[in-house]
């Protein structure tokens, strides 16, 4: 009989393979995910998984997909949306993969975290707050990197990337007797030497710097509240590498799997001892 578990997936950019490895380790350890919370890239993985897509299919998708068409620059979007990309291609892609499912259609409880520009606070999309909302739209909102993707309006909120307010939404998981696990992809970048660098180098570091401002506090509070955090070092992979090498994707998957497996084994030790 499978054991229930609640899982939160952090922002990841295009390092999605690490989250897939973590979910694979969770399944292999005999757990059944009954609730998922996701931010940004983590919300994309969480939404696809919650929609019923198997890990085998998800892995094949994320190990081979070139995300470049979802981030094509549009001068018109820059004028009308105040962003480099409209985000329409990403939304349509996610709608197709999730078959247009809404939060009310899901068997797994899903919570997608975005940041509301109007209130400058975290906003949670879920069955409780937006039952008829397509999960694809929620994931698109959560992954709206400021300036890169246009903000997403929905009801009385205007949303950008959830990582601006909560990059690891373990606190959004239901707190009860079921274990809560947060998968945190650490951007352990090595320092750069002084010099001139292009946007390709600086953009992901700027994003990581913004996220770091709230991550430590959230993780400390989540741990104090009883959640277990799996730290997966991923500094070797750029969060904005839209078509990263297959070897890097595989390394991300392996690291996500191995670090999560190690933490789950430690969690099981007291039970074994009894």
Question: Can you walk me through this structure?
Answer:
With 274 residues, the chain is of the alpha/beta class. It has 8 helices and 8 strands. It has helices at 16-28, 41-50, 55-64, 75-80, 88-98, 135-142, 199-224, 246-273, and strands at residues 3-9, 31-39, 109-116, 121-126, 152-154, 157-160, 180-186, 228-233. Strands 1, 2, 3, 4, 5, 6, 7 and 8 form an 8-stranded mixed beta sheet that branches. The mean pLDDT is 89.
Task: Considering the chains and any ligands shown, give keywords for the structure.
single chain, 274 residues, alpha/beta, eight-stranded mixed beta sheet, 8 helices, globular
Brief characterization of the structure:
With 274 residues, the protein is of the alpha/beta class. It has helices spanning 16-28, 41-50, 55-64, 75-80, 88-98, 135-142, 199-224, 246-273, and strands at 3-9, 31-39, 109-116, 121-126, 152-154, 157-160, 180-186, 228-233.
Strand-helix topology:
Elements: E1 3-9, H1 16-28, E2 31-39, H2 41-50, H3 55-64, H4 75-80, H5 88-98, E3 109-116, E4 121-126, H6 135-142, E5 152-154, E6 157-160, E7 180-186, H7 199-224, E8 228-233, H8 246-273
Parallel strand pairs: 1-2, 1-7, 2-3, 7-8
Antiparallel strand pairs: 3-4, 3-6, 5-6
Helix pairs in contact: 1-3, 1-8, 2-6, 5-6
Structural class: alpha/beta
**Main sheet specs:** 8 strands, mixed
Determine the mean pLDDT: 89
Please give the number of β-strands: 8
Q: Sum up the overall morphology in one term.
A: globular
Query: What is the rounded Rg?
Result: 18 Å
Strand portion? 15-25%
Distance linking N and C termini: 19 Å
**H/E element string?**
EHEHHHHEEHEEEHEH
